[in-house]
Inverse folding.
């Protein structure tokens, strides 16, 4: 057992920095080049796409389920990939020192699994599960035009109050 | 560090040929799925690819079956190649192929999205095959879930029909509940025996950590499997689900998943919880499950047959009839459990597989005709809709009559040989409980004559009040009728050929 040294965890720190940097850069880029259409929908408090005020027993779009299914698919994928990634090096070493092709078996199996997951993604894509922004975008553009014509971003909320 | 890791590694014992049937079918399923997403709505192409996949899988199966000197188990004992797996897998492949042919009619008529349907059917079949080939509780559970999730969706494929929605939702909720029981049972059995491998469980029952835990686990497994094969008192879902599901899917569910349930049920109980003479824990466990299943078999037969009598809907009648047939098959199951020799046990297992084969052939033939008569949206499924069609559509009426007689178990038909074979092992055991069981089974066969013959009477001796336009029999459906009719006679007359094939590779578990 080697002595504990904080330096061993330097990659984790780098990972943190990369993560923060990535998030910051995304926000910055969005601020600089993103189009700014202040529609009523966009100015609403964020509530995962639902109406923030109203009954909790509301019907909501089936599209949420699509996202949930896609999320589950890739969430579970990670669940399988991580143990494989952790053990793979040792498996390769075991293959070289033994007679059983541990590393090859693990690699082929994992590639096959990843291929299956990609097929699932392809299927969802082709079926149009991710295609639901076309209508939403058209609606947002129409709404922005309407607001511009009325002449006030907050007119809708003022009327409601 | 490295050496410890190496020492802990088990040999994965990979054998691709042993899982080739499953792999081919899974790949076909993926292929159909991709094809359907790129070029949607080509029913004939997806159907053809599925059929080719099933045939390739069957070829692979028979290759394993007929090549001597095959490895008997692989993947650390998780997959086995014995007669139990082979015979049941053959049944599943036949059921799927016939279902694809039967559903051509329905798919064209209702404009179903066939690519999805074919994919689901193939994945369901893969699930069933893993249920039969898995010698490990985990593999069995995975197979069961693959099968269940696909069938839940298939039951609800008629999306705009409320009955179909109800069917799918009911099946889903109750099915997941039963899966929960099954998984809990598996966890408890693992806790008691320290292994999920069925062969190992059999060896460990005598040194079980907590005999009570093993007993509770076994009871939960009975509930989980009992639900899948629709035995009383876990049958409540069956009539509603079978009535609401599209007719070809109902035929599939009554033949395929039921047989798959029996395959794992047999493996886990007959091979996993055997009688070990002189060891109190296993004797008690064996005694308990034999008694429980005997009582369940009696209840299943009786409730299924008596409830079938009062049905006015043909699909519901066939649903209750399928419950009754699960009861008959359980007589063979119990017979396998009480068999004193390994050959007796293997013969009983082969008998149950053969029974599921005869039931599948007969039942799918009957559902082919029900599909044809039902017309769009499954409208005509009442007994009245069959009034007097006997001499107007003689082909349909005579085939349906033949299937009813085979379900009843008339000599020369498949059903007769099937019944004789499943009743025999229980009778050979000779205990009074087994004799009572067989007597009740025979009485039940007599009761079932009432509703099977009623359909024949309705078809031939009732006046038709509404007009009857003869449905067109497509080539695919003609093929199904030909295969099933030949099957009914072939299994009824030359059944022993099949039985010999079914007991070719004895189960690799010794009796103790």
């Amino acid at each position: 057992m080697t002595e504990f040294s904080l330096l061993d965890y330097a990659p984790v720190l780098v990972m943190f920095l990369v993560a923060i940097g990535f998030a910051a850069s995304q926000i910055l880029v969005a601020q600089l080049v993103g189009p700014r259409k202040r529609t009523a929908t966009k100015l609403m408090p964020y509530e995962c796409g639902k109406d923030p005020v109203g009954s909790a027993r509301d019907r909501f779009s089936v599209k949420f389920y699509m996202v949930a299914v896609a999320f589950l698919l890739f969430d579970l994928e990670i669940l399988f990939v991580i143990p494989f990634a952790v053990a793979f090096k040792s498996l390769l070493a075991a293959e070289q020192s033994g007679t059983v092709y541990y590393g090859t078996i693990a690699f082929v199996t994992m590639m096959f699994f990843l291929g299956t997951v990609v097929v699932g993604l392809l299927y969802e894509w082709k079926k149009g599960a991710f295609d639901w922004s076309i209508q939403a975008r058209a609606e947002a553009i129409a709404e922005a035009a309407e607001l511009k014509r009325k002449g006030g971003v907050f007119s809708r909320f003022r009327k409601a109050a | 560090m490295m050496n410890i890791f190496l020492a802990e590694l088990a040999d994965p014992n990979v054998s691709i040929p042993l899982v080739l049937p499953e792999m081919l079918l899974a790949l076909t399923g993926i292929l159909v799925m991709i094809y359907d997403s790129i070029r949607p709505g080509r029913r004939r192409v997806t159907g053809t690819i599925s059929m080719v996949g099933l045939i390739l899988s069957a070829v692979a199966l028979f290759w394993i079956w007929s090549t001597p000197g095959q490895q008997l188990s692989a993947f650390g004992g998780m997959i086995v190649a014995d007669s139990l797996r082979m015979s049941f897998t053959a049944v599943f492949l036949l059921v799927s192929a016939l279902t694809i042919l039967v559903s051509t009619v329905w798919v064209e008529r209702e404009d179903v999205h066939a690519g999805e349907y074919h994919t689901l059917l193939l994945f369901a079949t893969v699930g069933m095959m893993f249920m039969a080939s898995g010698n490990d509780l985990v593999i069995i559970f995975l197979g069961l879930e693959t099968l269940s999730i696909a069938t839940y969706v298939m039951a609800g494929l008629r999306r705009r029909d409320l009955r179909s929605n109800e069917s799918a939702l009911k099946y889903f909720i109750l099915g997941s509940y039963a899966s929960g029981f099954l998984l809990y049972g598996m966890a408890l059995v693992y806790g008691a025996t320290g292994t999920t491998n069925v062969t190992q469980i059999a060896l460990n029952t005598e040194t079980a950590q907590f005999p009570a835990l093993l007993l509770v686990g076994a009871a939960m497994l009975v509930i989980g499997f009992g639900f899948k094969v629709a035995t009383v008192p876990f049958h409540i879902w069956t009539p509603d689900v079978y009535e609401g599901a599209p007719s070809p899917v109902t035929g599939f569910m009554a033949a395929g998943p039921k047989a798959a349930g029996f395959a794992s049920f047999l493996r886990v109980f007959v091979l996993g919880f055997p009688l070990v003479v002189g060891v109190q824990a296993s004797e008690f466990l064996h005694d308990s499950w034999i008694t429980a299943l005997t009582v369940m078999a009696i209840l299943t037969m009786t409730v299924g047959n008596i409830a079938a009598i009062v049905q006015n809907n043909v699909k519901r009648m066939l649903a209750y009839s399928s419950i009754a047939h699960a009861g008959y098959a359980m007589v063979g199951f119990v017979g396998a459990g009480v068999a004193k020799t390994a050959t007796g046990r293997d013969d009983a297992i082969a008998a149950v597989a053969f029974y599921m084969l005869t039931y599948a052939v007969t039942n799918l033939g009957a559902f082919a005709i029900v599909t044809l008569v039902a017309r769009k949206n499954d409208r005509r499924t009442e007994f009245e809709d069959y009034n007097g069609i006997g001499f107007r559509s003689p082909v349909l009426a005579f085939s349906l009559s033949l299937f009813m007689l085979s379900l009843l178990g008339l000599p020369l038909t498949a059903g007769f040989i099937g019944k004789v074979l499943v009743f025999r092992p229980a009778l050979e055991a000779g205990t009074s409980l087994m004799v009572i069981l067989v007597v009740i089974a025979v009485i039940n066969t007599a009761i079932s004559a009432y509703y099977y013959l009623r359909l024949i009477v309705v078809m031939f001796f009732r006046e038709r009040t509404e007009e009857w336009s003869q449905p067109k029999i497509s080539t695919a459906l003609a093929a199904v009728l030909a295969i099933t009719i030949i099957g009914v006679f072939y299994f009824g007359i030359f059944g022993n050929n099949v039985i010999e094939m079914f007991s070719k590779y004895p189960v690799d578990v010794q009796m103790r």
